[in-house]
Amino acid sequence: MYELMNVYLENGLKVVLHRIPTSKTIACGVWVKQGSRYEDDSTSGLSHLLEHLIFTSNNNEGTENLLDEIASKGIVYNATTTKEYTHYYFSGISYNLGFCISTLAKLLTQYNDVSDEKFENEKKIVLREASSYYSSFKQIAERSTQALWGNSNVGRIIVGDMKVIENSTRESIVNLYNKSYTPENSILVIVGGFEYHEAIELAKKNFASWEDKIINRNEELVNKEVGIYLNTQKTGDNSIVSVCFKLPEFDSPYRNTIEVISLILGDGGIKSRLAKEIRMKRGLAYIINSFESFYEERGLLGFASVCQPKTINEVVELMIKEFSKCKKEGFTKNEIESAKNKLITKRILGIENVADHLKFLGKCATYNSSFSLEQEIRNIKKISGEHIMLILDDIFHENNMSIAAIGDINIDELLERIKLV
Amino acid sequence: MEDFKCIIDTSLISESEKIKEDLFKGPSLNILILLLKGEKTASEISRNLNIPIFSTRLYLSRLQNYNMIVESKIIKNEKTVEKVYKLTTTKLEIINSQTNSNISEKTKQEECNSMAEYFNKLTSNAIGNIYKYTDSPYIIKSCFISANTEKMAAFKEKLNALIDEFNEMEDVDEEKTYGLIVNFTPYELD
After folding, report:
1. What is the ipTM, given to two decimal places?
2. pTM
3. Do A253 and A365 lie in a common domain?
4. B58 and A416 in contact by Cβ < 8 A?
5. Mean pLDDT along residues A164-185
6. CB distance from B82 to chain A under 8 Å?
């Protein structure tokens, strides 16, 4: 049985615990509801910069010593900024739980300003990361969110606006920390081999003194209608395009069905429907895959391909034809069963590794969604061809669709060729 | 690994300069004509012209960049925002005047070509649809004369007065749109 415990500390910090009695390892992390979704034109990219600075902040014991100690114990640590939250996490042998939790508390509950030198240095690192991101095809998934919702809310790109980062000040980062790093806006998640009472005591001991503050933030609205992302700069031999659709939120009962659709149409390999039509039959592209992102209030399903600028229109036309076809005819029994099995395997593998499991639980907790492996597998097993047809009809229509493209492409010709029926 | 030059531009639509020549490709002109009837959202335009919303947004963005349309208001709902667009002016003729004399010859020629493209579309649209309205008043005529410049200047004034008179007759409650497309210029074959 999948066992999950939610506890609230007096300061408002939510603690989510999942005990795996057989596990000899633990993973723990703090999820702070601060990401690009909560930024605006003047703060774009600062959530990510703050994530970097948390690890260089001059807290009482000196972060460098702290990080040396973590490494010496063989503990793996990392942090990630997403659109809706920033998370900091550790994983290691179970007996290190106390040390991991106290280190998380030291890093997150007492951010002290950094020196000018450290600040400027970290800015340079973050700018290099952003520059590398904005020069790569990887950005197409986030450009798709921009196409669907505009440059606001979840449409904002995580690494943000390089000019804003360049002009940011230490004060702006301290302000952002004070505004968003509060117990009520954060969740502590612990997974693995531990005892509940011990973990709760550790959470209380290390996080109870975190000051409860009121947070006021204005959240940007998203565009009601889908738009388009287009950058026609020359990108050499390759260009990238994504055809994307709006989806319901993470907690939607249709999430698993949508993942099945995504797997059948664009699973990374060569057996997906799109890979067969575009890569195997015609040799028009090397990379064709699908991606889905679910957020607290909305989601997206995208299909991306890296191909030559001159073939991009044909590739998109073939994608659209395939969407129209599956909307009309659905999928075969074999395709559905195979995708369901892949999804079940993915879910089970996801909880085998405590660190991966922690990340999934953290995301669920941030969205106030409760996860249970048994429920998840039961729901996947129930997915039927008829159900898929209903969802396809709901998603695959022109007013729910958008395009993101980077490269020297003839967009007018492309738009004339698109007809999703 | 870098795949291409870093994109620093934060705008959602970034197209090459070539677009000026292509402005009236696609349904841009139909959008302008539709907006003559009043301000509209992208989804209303999309429904009226039967084109997908994402395409509509691209054409609206181009027209906006070219100062032909502006956002007249923003409708805010609980979690979404929707823009309403209107023509910069309801007198479409204004977009066909060259007002800046400080621009280069090349730019002037580009603007003239753009106007020609625009007029080409306008006249094609008007003449191409006239068979539907044979019971309505219309004139399609072209005349070429050799004439004195002073007399032509005086005629231009009369023509302007006639255009003003035409504009003053506007009745927004009427369904039908009439177009007066005027091209009075020195004529030269290429």
Report:
1. 0.86
2. 0.85
3. yes
4. no
5. 95
6. yes
